[in-house]
Amino acid sequence: MQERIPFYIRFKKNAQVASKGRLVQVRRLFVHLDLDTAMRLGHQRSIHGVKLWVTGMRLKDDYLLIASNQDNLEAIEFYRQRRGIETLFGCLNTRGVNLESTHLRDPDRVAKLVGLLTPAFSWAHKAGRWIAARERIKLNKHGRPAKSLFRTGLDHCPASA
């Protein structure tokens, strides 16, 4: 039996979807929206051969497009929550603390460690915001900061030096 595990995944604005019998770039279906206004298409669309529900939003310089196997008007909010969790685990693993290096397998111990590290992450992030408000943060060529707020705060903590 196939499981119906809900998923919400972001996809590119130039992905091809069927609309009125022809393929179009998915962003064309959302170009009429006001900025930061979300809309779910009325029926499932075929994306890379898979029928999915599509929710989208026009942003200042881009689009936020979410595909899901769930008919859900809150797809963008679910994606934002998932994205926040992924960012937290990314910072706790590859961009800072190296959580996976502990090799813990016991779920209770992992939960306790994450419970201890989450306030540390919050503190480093808050310190990074404080530093960014007072100092000029180096930008890369594409205009984004060279370091995340978390990394900026973590690098200024005495224990991480």
Furnish the topology, listing elements before pairings.
Blueprint (H helix, E strand, L loop, with lengths): L7 E3 L5 E4 L2 E4 L12 E3 L4 E3 L2 E9 L4 E6 L6 H18 L14 H28 L14 H8 L5
Antiparallel strand pairs: 1-7, 2-3, 4-6, 5-6, 6-7
Overview of the molecule:
There is one protein chain. This protein is an alpha+beta fold and 161 residues long. It folds into two domains: 8-79, no CATH class; 93-160, no CATH class. Helix content is 34%, strand content 20%. It is built from three helices and seven strands; from the N terminus they run E-E-E-E-E-E-E-H-H-H. The protein has helices at residues 75-92, 107-134, 149-156, and strands at 8-10, 16-19, 22-25, 38-40, 45-47, 50-58, 63-68. Strands 1, 4, 5, 6 and 7 form a five-stranded antiparallel beta sheet that branches. A two-stranded antiparallel sheet has the order 2-3. Helix 2 (107-134) packs across helix 3 (149-156). The chain is globular, with a radius of gyration of 20 Å. The mean pLDDT is 86.
